[in-house]
Amino acid sequence: MASAGNVRTAGRVASAALAAVSGVLIAVLLLGSAAAEHAVMLTASLTALAAVATGLRVHQVPDRRPWLLVLVGLGLLTVVNTLPWVSAGVPVAPFQISGYLALLAASLLIVWRRTPRDRGGVIDAAIVGIATAAPVWEFVLRPALVTGGVGAGGQVVVLVQLLVLTGILGALLRVTRTSGRRAMTVWLLFGALSCAVAGDVVFTTTGGSSGLLYLGGYLLVGAAALHPTVATLTHPVTTGETGVPKLRLGLFGFALIVVPLVGGVPQLYGEAPDGLLLTLGPLAMVPLVLVRAGQLIAQRAQDQRDLAYQANHDDLTGLVNRRRLFTVMAQATAAVTPAAVLYCDLDDFKPINDRYGHEAGDEVLRCVGRRLVEVLRDGDVTARIGGDEFLAYCPDADEATASGLRRRVEEALHAPIPWNGVTLQVGVTVGVLLSEPGAYTSPDELVAAADAVMYERKRIQKAERAVHT
């Protein structure tokens, strides 16, 4: 296995070679003829292929699926650049479209795998990206296509390509913002896709050469694969959306009205509205809007469940809290069978906090909570009602059942608790109160009575220890 030093050296050599080739290709493109441009494009695509293959090998990329798609896409575009040298009669469109689709699939895979906690933000960014395509299409590309005599079919291809590319550009931009400088590979891929979009716009509107932009796209893909951050390209980012800021919500709303607004502009001048944009734009955006709406609905439902859980449970132990326990006990006051209340107060807990700190004390409380749930019955309700005080409400329990439960609790809580290489030990005093139907009118009264029983038992235990010592 290659050492870290050898990997860095190989990466630097490959990057230097790419920089050198890039300089030569740019010079040839700027100074050469139209025929030289074909040779430059072919060399650039082959260089990008070699750079991606080298980057995968040098940096030991763990998830190669996106880059395999990139290799497929670059291979198809290399075929496109080769065909003028081989046969002028072979159509290039199928290879070009297939190559773009492979590269777009790779981009989508990268975005989706990198942002599991920010997919809502990514969808919003994609919608805004699609919206930016509307004015570019209506005021730049469409007039050029109409002037050039391009039919409806050709216009559909260009518009669909623009909508998809700008949508992915928006998503990649969101990924770059959440990744920061730690993911230079993402920035380089964003630059490569930007060059492709700009090259298509320049070629469609002017009919002239956009070779420099396409060359930049190829070279940036190669640079992305050779950068060390390529190894973590698909690692999920740790940050995620915590809400929907007002600015982002405003952009989202504005994006939704841009397409119909721009598509209806020709009608202001007595012309027919742009049917292609008014049809294909919503077809691209509506599925994303529906997915986003579903996410927001699910997020709201989850937030409500989380709030309900937090309102009824103790954060530290996960047991129900005093509020939820009293609700259960109030609902059970009309029961016709006796119930047992076990009031548990930990002994020797404070010395653990004083000696080992609150982290040790928290672990003791969590362990006590787990053990109480394990030894009590499924229908019993166990709660943490104070610092080191726990209470179990056990319905349908007679005196024998209550005594058995107390013994099980005492045995479980006296067991040692391992923590960070030391053994922690606490005791417990359990006060057992049997509640006959109608004997107590409120949960507060019932808990107060159980508390009194617990303190009486604690007093008796202390007296017994004093006698034996």
Provide key terms for this protein.
single chain; two-stranded antiparallel sheet; about 475 residues; 2 domains; alpha+beta; 16 helices
Describe this structure in words.
With 469 residues, the protein is an alpha+beta fold. The protein has 2 domains: 4-234 and 241-256; 322-468, Alpha-Beta Plaits (2-Layer Sandwich), CATH 3.30.70.270. Helices cover 71% and strands 7% of the residues. The protein has 16 helices and 6 strands. It has a 4-stranded antiparallel beta sheet with strand order 2-3-1-6, sandwiched between helices. Helix 3 packs antiparallel against helix 4 (93-114). It holds the Pfam family GGDEF. Residues 337-469 form the GGDEF domain. The chain crosses the membrane at residues 12-32, 38-56, 68-86, 92-112, 121-140, 152-173, 185-203, 215-237, 249-269.
Oligomer: single chain
What string, H for helix and E for strand, traces the elements in order?
HHHHHHHHHHHHEHHEEHEEEH
Count every helix, treating DSSP H or I runs of 4 or more residues as helices.
16
Could you tell me the number of beta strands? Answer: 6
Biggest sheet layout: 4 strands, antiparallel
Low-confidence stretches: none
Straight-line distance between termini:
68 Å
Strand portion = 5-15%
